[in-house]
Amino acid sequence: MNATTTTAMPILRVEHLSMKFGGLVAIGDLSFDVRRGEITALIGPNGAGKTTVFNCITGFYKPTEGMIRFTGRAGDEFLLERMPDFQITAKAKVARTFQNIRLFSGMTVLENLLVAQHNKLMKASGYTLLGLFGIGGYPQAAAEAIEKARYWLEKADLTDRADDPAGDLPYGAQRRLEIARAMCTDPELLCLDEPAAGLNPKESLALNALLNDIKDNTGTSILLIEHDMSVVMEISDHVVVLEYGRKISDGTPEEVRTDPSVIAAYLGVDDEEVEEVLIEVGDEDVIEQLDTGPDTEHGPEASASMFAGPLSDTVVHGNGERVTVEKGAGKAGRARTEKPAAAKPAGTAARPVKASASTGRAKSGKASAAEKAEPPVTGDKSAEAKAKPAAARKEGISNRLSAPRGGKADNLQLVKGIGPVNEKKLNAHGIYHFDQIAAWKKADIAAAEAYLAFDGRIAREDWIGQAKALAKKAASVPATRRGGRK
Ligand SMILES: Nc1ncnc2c1ncn2[C@@H]1O[C@H](COP(=O)(O)OP(=O)(O)OP(=O)(O)O)[C@@H](O)[C@H]1O
């Protein structure tokens, strides 16, 4: 294979990937490419399967079916689904970061960058004591490692903090350090799992700058999972959208943001988030409709929550296209699009409706605190919810608080499985702290699952165990040093 062919090849080709956990199809027949030298974003609502895709690519999971073909710069090909994870890092040069920051928090920032180069240094030592004492290539390799660490310190804007413990850095700086650490391994493909989670706008900008710099100056291709649409739309060359483990859209940010299936998928979140998404995708016409308030005649059923089930939402786009999510449907696959030509005759044409008027309230009329405190369980998923202990549903979680202690909530997104949507919901239900989740009993879990419309996921993802560990850690760290966006 000549060099031109190689550079034109996608660095990663995911072909017919499926991953099943028992009866749950987390990913179903998924195919997409990551093009070399580009930033590709993998987006989708919570539970869409994004992290599972990452876990398959990086060897944490062995997919049930499908191929993950990696082509290196030199034309070397690897089938990642057949390789153990350490070889994927070492041979294919795929590096990753995780949803939850995983730094050596007691080591300094510089030490974190040097540890990342440990394998290379050990190789240079010839794995001998003499090597470590300067016989052979070790001194040269050590000097190069320090130079590389210095380079990435500067790129990540961390030079001033080089000697500080990594755990002392602000949250955004820790995220950049993780990326710098991954870059010290000279990856060909960098996989980032929600790098912008918990960042404030200034930190998000710094992250965007770092990722663009990597793209422009290193040749490393980037695959990122991200919920923050401003990051996705700003820096991605290519966006793949998942919903329930299936691809619903694939294209440029511009193509994806105007794709009715994607809008319909995102309409499946809370009112406030629908608004956020639509503002971020910049569909002026739809935003205007949001401002017109509820349409009781054509408005949707009781809930538009992705977690609460049935939708009957309709949106009219700038080009006159009307997207209806069928009554009883939850997902984009069931979205029906009517082109303007197919619109009903004058007089009977459906009025533009408030896209997210799931509760029949106008944009300005946000839910009252009482409504938010215990929203009713509605829709299709209510069948599931009904199966939960009735008392739990009725009484809700036992250790709710009316406000975060000390006015500062913990960053619940540090619990794997809690994304921005679920964090917001938990806060709305009076859950702000790790120790609250850590103290949940069976009935509390059932109550939480009822309004998050989960089915056993809290136990599966061991939120209690994770929250216990995080609560313990938080208790040992002064409040001012706790990472998080809150
Ligand atoms: N190890 C596992 N065992 C059982 N089910 C799993 C496992 N890992 C993931 N799942 C399930 O697979 C589905 C997809 O989860 P995944 O974490 O990949 O979604 P996601 O899109 O990354 O979500 P989020 O945005 O919330 O992180 C979920 O229903 C999840 O509960």
TrEMBL record:
This is Branched-chain amino acid transport system ATP-binding protein. Keywords: Amino-acid transport, ATP-binding, Nucleotide-binding, Transport. The lineage of its organism: Bacteria, Pseudomonadati, Pseudomonadota, Alphaproteobacteria, Hyphomicrobiales. Signal peptide: none annotated. Coiled coil: none annotated. GO terms for molecular function: ATP binding. Residues 290-411 are annotated as: Disordered. Residues 319-341, 381-397 have a biased composition (Basic and acidic residues). Belongs to the ABC transporter superfamily. The keyword Protease does not apply. CDD domains: ABC_Mj1267_LivG_branched. Gene3D superfamilies: 5' to 3' exonuclease, C-terminal subdomain, P-loop containing nucleotide triphosphate hydrolases. InterPro entries: AAA+_ATPase, ABC_AA/LPS_Transport, ABC_transporter-like_ATP-bd, BCA_ABC_TP_C, P-loop_NTPase. Residues 12-269 form the ABC transporter domain.
